[in-house]
Amino acid sequence: DRPAEPLFVLKGQRRDFQFDIPEEFVNTRFKKTQRKIQKQAGANILKIKKLDVLPDISFPKQLGRREQFSHFVPKHRQMTKQLVQMLMNSSDVESFLSTSAYCRDQINPFMYSYALAVAIQHRRDTMGLTLPHVPSFFPERFFDGSVFSKVRNEVFNAAAEDRDVIAIPRDFTASDLEPEHRVAYFREDIGVNLHHWNWHVYYPGVGGPEVVAKDRRGELFYYMHAQLLARYNFDRLSNNLARVQRLLNWRKPIEEGYFPKLNAIIATRVWQPRPANSVLKLSDISRDDMQLDFDILDLERWRDRIYAAISSGKVLAENNTYVPLDDYTGIDILGNMIERSDISINSNLYGDLHGLGHVAIALVHDPDHKHLEQAGVMGAVETAMRDPVFYRWHSFINDMFVAHKQTLQPYTEQELGFRNVQVVRADVETQYLDVLNEFSTFWEEDDFNVDRGLDFMGNGTVRVRITHLTHTPFRYLIQVNNAGPPRIGTVRIFMAPHFDERGIQLTLRDQRQHFIEMDKFQVRLQTGPNQIERLSRLSSVTIPRENTFRDPAQELNADAGEMCTCGWPQHMLVPRGKVKGLPADLFVMVSDGAGDQVRDPQGPPNTCTDAHSLCGIRNRMYPDRRPMGYPFDRLPRAGVTTLQEFLLPNMMVTPVVIRHTDGFAPAAPPTPTRFLRLQP
Ligand code: CUO
């Protein structure tokens, strides 16, 4: 279904293409400039055809070009929906391109780029195209605002060969007086925020059933966000911070303040700060500019109805029939309902809890628009994860899913076991290290190109340098004995902290919420012993590091096919750990492939599959039949209180240590070991 030669090419070698846009699409003031640019472009012109009927965009145009767009404000969602549907309904690539070109300079740029990305990822004739990197065209949403004046200064005053790289200090948003700042490297990580944006582009909550209704999307909403929380808590424990407290009482001040320091380039203002101890007002949100009125009481009402539904094991659908929240589909129904996607089973009854919570928090500094202020970072998916309160809000949301999972029957030994299969070894070998079962993390610098978002009239640009966490590559060494016939097994690797914030060993009841998925892959088990080696960079949770730090559409080989942008960044695969070493439990399980495999009627996927654990495979069935989070998503079976008791022969736990070096190189001497030679 993919066109042999897609018209809408956004890739590197065609960057000099100019679109020849019909004059009626262009604002009269820009027409002369437009003609001049076209003349300069010479042969590299791509003609955009005229539309017989110009689409009616009066509704989405109501949001001004310089106003702030929020993914969670219902009116903005309706506008986005109309835009997505219009782009999806264009009959062929040519008219899709024309419609996009027509909208481009009239619609709010943030809403436009989101809707366009959703449409490109979902149209049968454009899906598979690699989209340009959002931080390169909206750098204001990812980089410290003060960097842009420095960039401008360099570009206009220094010759291209004399320009400095502009470094963003690691500590730009707060000082160490603020304890929460210790995990700012996690919250403000560019790859983490990029993953969150791209997940919400792959799984939009609006846009009509053809883009929203996907296999197990509600369940993935639960699981992906639960994994974000587990990972954040792991990094908090690495930094001597307690795990996140749920935001339960919405009438008490929010202790954590956050000052994002992101400056505006395109919008008039970007992301208001929130001082510590801000109070959500009972007198509620009343914003004419967003045509939005709701009360904290509404949120409380929806919360109570959702908990009541969970404890009764059924939800009331719009057609007034009860739908059971069963073992497999219950979580999916709840995910769509609590997020409040377009396919919520009953949005009148269960409301818009997750989305309007984001909004209430984002507007806490100006709930009634008295000060004409715009939202905080919680208002948009590409910035929300920067704020400590994001994790508190999502912990509350996650608690509802946990409450549902606790109503289900624990997995039996039969559901967890794999007859005649035994894991006899599960070790981690880190490159350059002579000891087993030790991870090594440290800091690393990377440069970024921001020139799509900053137009310097042909003067070129400079690169921006950021510092981020990373780890030394490692591999798993697993031995599995198979006393049965040759079979397929699924290797599931998780890791959790061993101690809580007080230094007390976590009980399984508690620890199971903190297992982060590290990898999942299938193996063919021969009869007898099987040696399995698996490299860290192949993790099913992550995308390769180039996909984060390079603009895949601009700098990588455009012929390499689609590159995944949804996925946890590879450089954040291992939590930070401690300088003295953070003890953790590595859990390895081999489950019966016969019970795991999905029979997708569409056959094997032809799109990117790098990070299927958190992102699924776009527009296809989720490639694992077990409930997401298996085997830790349900309570342990009766009589089991420790991780050791949980183990069956097809599982193994290895104590590991995560050691952090607070510098730009791992502490161990870089002498290549046998591991290096083994890498393909
Ligand atoms: Cu991803 Cu609240 O859903 O941010």
Q: What do these coordinates show?
A:
With 680 residues, the protein is α/β, with parallel strands linked by helices. It has three domains: 12-127, Hemocyanin, N-terminal domain (Up-down Bundle); 179-406, Di-copper center containing domain from catechol oxidase (di-copper center containing domain from catechol oxidase); 413-454 and 463-678, Immunoglobulin-like (Sandwich). It contains 22 helices and 18 strands. The model is unreliable at 1-15 and 670-680 (pLDDT under 50).
CATH evolutionary superfamily of the largest domain:
Hemocyanin, C-terminal domain
> So, CATH architecture of the largest domain?
Sandwich
Task: Could you tell me the CATH topology label of the largest domain.
Answer: Immunoglobulin-like
The low-pLDDT segments are 1-15, 670-680
What is the distance, rounded to the nearest whole angstrom, between the alpha carbons of the first and last residues?
A: 33 Å
Helical/strand content category:
alpha/beta
Choose one word for the global shape. globular
Q: Please tell me the total number of domains.
A: 3
Q: Can you give the helix content as a percent range? A: 25-40%
Strand order of the largest sheet: 3-10-9-18-17-12-13
The number of distinct helices, counting runs of at least 4 residues, comes to 22
Main sheet, how many strands, which sense, barrel?
Answer: 7 strands, mixed
Mean pLDDT rating: 86
Q: Strand content of the residues, in percent?
A: 15-25%
Number of strands: 18
CATH class descriptor of the largest domain: Mainly Beta
Small-molecule binders here are:
CU2-O2 cluster
Radius of gyration: 25 Å
